[in-house]
């Protein structure tokens, strides 16, 4: 036996001498080549998945804005971010799985002998959007030193500085760089617009419009300039421009809502009485698109309290039982709501009521409704722009909140900005001001790994609390 082993070893040594020794260091199970396209596609998917996710471990924005409430437990509906490290998951997913992959993809594109400008501009646009989500979620964030492998403890840049730099990058590195008659990522690599650069340019301008309106209360002068430039350059003009992806029919690439509501085998959510009762009062034609009936009526659970799944309406089959349900990051109806508000603020010319009607109609049709249903809905005194209660913030804010059902993060941002509808925190809420959170608290892991810089960031924003308002939220 020993002789056979020695002979085998000698044969191996002899064989190895005739081959490149570097082959011994190659892991045959690894991908031989990582491409810019594979990293780009992976980062896209991770971004859409996180923004669409509804697991209580990963994304509770639908709970925060009182679209849904819980049945099995109530911690997350009461804004407990720490027990399940929800803030940490949001933070790490966007930095590690999204921004890091986009950065590496851009590096590979930049290293090609024939650099494709449209590819770099598209990646840059995604990076800007992702940082926009982070800064509007947390406030001060790692930015200039983020993702640098040589900097283990990055500083937190001031939220206003980050936001203003994102606007500059949007102009200088994206909008001015797109070349509409040249190619970018291929139709198989670009899972949103299938390589249509004109669509990407429209999304860039629409994001600029959204970012301009975000600072309407904190810096009206700059907001007006940003918004006017975006509208002049060309924003979404129809639902065909929506920035969205479609998921696959088979796991693990189904819509994460389907994974949480069907594949999990759990019954954790019911729609809230907050939204169900409002839509019933307004005779909203989208109710059957949003909810199921319970004993012939739409009945929502009490927000923040323990609710029996069997005693209330459920999330509609259209939303909960379609694994391929599309997931948008921005839609035409959102743009029309922004334009209505921009007119009211005298940022652009036009008729606010027309844009408002366009927005509501587009939302109803997005869910499968008709022009006739939209006309009937808008014809009610409680809905019509000239007759609905309140100022423009209340009218637009209320209808936008209804239209953004199932779009938790976007709904949360608009609620913080417009302050409508009035949302009251439940009795056991983690917040102390009777309101939903104004921001996410910093991840606990940052306290242990980057405590000095986190402490500086906390002091800069006015305290690492759920009740701390961010730079744009002035009223």
From TrEMBL:
Q: Which InterPro entries match?
A: SusD-like_2, TPR-like_helical_dom_sf
Extract the Pfam families matched here.
SusD-like_2
Q: Which UniProt keywords apply?
A: Lipoprotein
User: Which protein are we looking at?
Assistant: SusD/RagB family nutrient-binding outer membrane lipoprotein
